[in-house]
Amino acid sequence: THTHTARATMASVDELKEAVRETLQTRGVLGSVKAQIRAEIFSALDDEAVSRPKPPKANVILDELIREYLEYNGYKYTASTLRAEASMADEPLERGFLAREVNINVAPGSAAEQLPLLYSLAARSGSLVLKAND
């Protein structure tokens, strides 16, 4: 009977896990919950006592451009994971500094002023037309 009770408990736990997974998926939050858990795991594993080598300037700039894009598009948990994995500061670098670093001139009042700098880089290649609130 002990084995039967253990199997019944395992089955009910498995059923509960599946029901929770389906509910979270139906609500559209399963992906963000998984991303948030990953970000928290990376943060917990990030031992501040161990010094990491300083990343190259190019990596810092690219990470910041990606962060701006992610946050603009509402990918807050993905951005949180990026910040944890890349050991980024909570506050982003100043946008004007980033624009100068990647040689982008953003005209005041232009669509580019409202969009992440990655959009301007893609537009420069001719593969994207910038439109705010498109």
Textual characterization of the structure:
With 134 residues, the protein is mostly helical. The protein has 7 helices and no strands. Helix 2 (30-45) packs parallel to helix 4. The longest helix is centred in the first third of the chain and has 25 residues, at 2-26. The mean pLDDT is 82.
Q: Which range best describes the helical content: under 10%, 10-25%, 25-40%, 40-55%, 55-70% or over 70%?
A: 55-70%
Radius of gyration computed on alpha carbons: 22 Å
H and E string: HHHHHHH
Q: What fraction of residues sit in β-strands?
A: under 5%
Mean of all residue-level pLDDT scores: 82
Number of helices, where a helix is a run of at least 4 consecutive DSSP H or I residues: 7
Beginning-to-end CA distance, first to last residue? 63 Å
List how many beta strands DSSP finds. Answer: 0
Shape: flat
Look at the helices and sheets and give the structural class. mainly alpha
Specify the biggest β-sheet: none
Low-confidence parts lasting 5 or more residues at pLDDT below 50?
none
List the helices and strands and how they pair.
Elements (H helix, E strand, L loop, with lengths): L1 H25 L3 H16 L11 H16 L3 H10 L9 H7 L9 H4 L2 H8 L10
Helix pairs in contact: 2-4, 3-4
